[in-house]
Every structure is written in structure tokens, then in C-alpha cells.
Specification:
Layout: E1 2-7, H1 11-14, H2 21-40, E2 45-51, H3 61-65, H4 82-88, E3 93-97, H5 105-109, E4 117-123, H6 125-139, E5 145-153, H7 157-169, E6 173-175
Parallel strand pairs: 1-2, 1-4, 2-3, 4-5, 5-6
Helix pairs in contact: 2-4, 6-7
């Protein structure tokens, strides 16, 4: 079984307060990836992470280092981009996370599953994508992890490329 992991394709990261032209442009590619995955892997698992903060975000360590209120649970910015939400469908497991990496991601995947490969896409490449990829590599060291670069975007094009190279150095497969 293959597992598709979509990282933080939420309004605040695409067209909202932390969005940029690259993250907004990734939406179309991610929708196509989800649809293609569902067609090719009818028994595959799809997991989507949701960056999730509370009203006290600015009092947290992350909030002190990134003082931009975003992804507050229940707000429009916290919601998945509508096209992504539609493509993910009801069968998708949504996993809220309070920091860059979803520490419960390995539990959500399931240890007893026969996993052939992880396919990862989303935003931001240089923060949350790389964090979740490293969690998967640590929890499942013998399962290939593939990041689809055209379905990711970073804080800047340069930081996106730097994160891709860092993941590649950690034996992650980088595909366009």
C-alpha cells in the first residue's frame, strides 16, 4: 500500500496571511496529484495535516518566533483550500498538528500496515514538509519517502530548493 501525505494545504498558507505566489500556485498541482493517486492506488491511504493553533498562539514559542497569527482552529484560514478539500474526499484522514511536525503521523499511518512508499506534498517545503518527512524517515526507515517538488512550495523559492536538497541528503527521493 502507498500512503499519500498532504501537508498543510490550508488557506492561510496559500492565499492567506502566510501565502505567497508559489504556495498559491501549488494548489492546482496538489489537486492533480491527489486525483491521480486515488485513481492509481484505490487501496492507498491519504492523510492530510492541518496546522492548528489556539487563540493564545502569540504566547507560544512558535508565536514568539513567527508573530503572524495563522491557522487558528475554526477560522477560514485554518480550513483546507476548497479544491484540496474536495479532492481529498471523505476517506481522507485529517490530522491536526500544533507544531511543524505531526508527532502522531506514524500512529495515523499504522505500524501494522505493509507500506510500499510514502508520497509527500504540501507547504511549506522548508518548514512543515521537511519536518514531517523527517518524522516519516525516522519512524519507517526502510520505507521510501518521495517528495513531489512541483506539489510543494516554500517561504521563498530559495528556501524551497534548500529544503529539497536537505531532504535528498537524507535519502528522500525528490521528484518533479
Amino acid at each position: 500500500m502507498k500512503v499519500l501525505v498532504i501537508i498543510d494545504m490550508q488557506n492561510d498558507f496559500t492565499t492567506g496571511v502566510l501565502g505567497n505566489p508559489e504556495t498559491a500556485a501549488a494548489v492546482e498541482n496538489v489537486v492533480k496529484l491527489i486525483n491521480d493517486f486515488r485513481a492509481a492506488e484505490p487501496d492507498g491511504k491519504v492523510i492530510a495535516t492541518l496546522d492548528t493553533h489556539a487563540e493564545n498562539y502569540l504566547d507560544t514559542q512558535e508565536g514568539k518566533n513567527l508573530p503572524v497569527i495563522h491557522c487558528i482552529r475554526g477560522t477560514e484560514g485554518w480550513q483546507l483550500v476548497p479544491e484540496i478539500e474536495k479532492a481529498l474526499g471523505d476517506e481522507c484522514l485529517k490530522l491536526e498538528k500544533v507544531t511543524f511536525g505531526a508527532v502522531d503521523l506514524p500512529l495515523a499511518v499504522g505500524r501494522d500496515e505493509q507500506i510500499e512508499e510514502f508520497i509527500v506534498a504540501g507547504v511549506c517545503t522548508d518548514i512543515c514538509v521537511i519536518s514531517n518527512v523527517m518524522i516519516l524517515k525516522a519512524a519507517f526507515p526502510e520505507v521510501p519517502v518521495r517528495v513531489i517538488a512541483s506539489c510543494c512550495a516554500g517561504v521563498s523559492p530559495q528556501s524551497h530548493e534548500t529544503a529539497l536538497r536537505a531532504m535528498q541528503a537524507c535519502q528522500v527521493i525528490i521528484d518533479e
